[in-house]
Amino acid sequence: MVYVDGFVIPMPKKNKEAYRKMAAMGAKTWKKHGALDYWECVAEELTVKDMLTGKMTSPFVKQLRLKPGETVVFSWIVFKDKKHRNAVNAKVMKDPAMSPEAWKDVAMPFDMKRVCYGGFVPIVRI
C-alpha cells in the first residue's frame, strides 16, 4: 500500500518558470529524504465537456475561482504509507534547503492561502 499527499494550486501563468524551479528543488529534497515519487503538473486543458449535459464547463476554474491569467498546478508525492510520509516530511522540514533563511529572498509564485492539500489512501491502483 502507498500513501499520497496531493496538492491543487491556483497560480498565475506568468509564474510557471519560477514555480518549476521551486518544484524541482522540492522534488530533490523530498526524494533525498525517501519519497517514492514526486509529480508537479501544470494544467493544459481546463475546459471539458460535461458528461451529463454535453455542455462545455470548467470545474477547476469555477471551484478554485481562477482569475484571468491563472492556471492550476496539480501535484502529488508518493510514500510507502502514512507513517513513512510523516517521517519523510519531518526530515524535509529540518532540511537546510527548507529553512526560512533559504527562502527569505524568494517570492512565492502562488498564494499559499489558496492551496488545496490533503493526504490520500489509494483505493484503486493498477
Topology:
Elements: E1 3-12, H1 16-32, E2 37-42, E3 48-49, E4 56-57, H2 59-63, E5 70-79, H3 82-94, H4 100-103, E6 116-120
Antiparallel strand pairs: 1-5, 1-6, 2-5, 3-4
Q: Can you describe this structure?
A:
The chain is an alpha+beta fold and about 130 residues long. It has one domain: Alpha-Beta Plaits, CATH 3.30.70. About 30% of the residues lie in helices and about 30% in strands. The protein is built from four helices and six strands; from the N terminus they run βαβββαβααβ. It is flat. The termini are close together. About 10% of the residues are buried.
Shape: flat
Domain count: the total is 1
Unreliable stretches:
none
Given helix and strand content, the structural type is: alpha+beta
**Mean pLDDT score, rounded?**
94
Determine the strand fraction and express it as a percent band. Answer: 25-35%
**CATH topology (level 3) name:** Alpha-Beta Plaits
- In total, the number of strands is 6
CATH class category: Alpha Beta
Quaternary form: single chain
Could you spell the SSE succession in H and E letters? EHEEEHEHHE
Strand order in space, largest sheet: 2-5-1-6
CATH architecture: 2-Layer Sandwich
The rounded Rg comes to 16 Å
Largest sheet: 4 strands, antiparallel
Q: What is the rounded distance between the termini? A: 12 Å
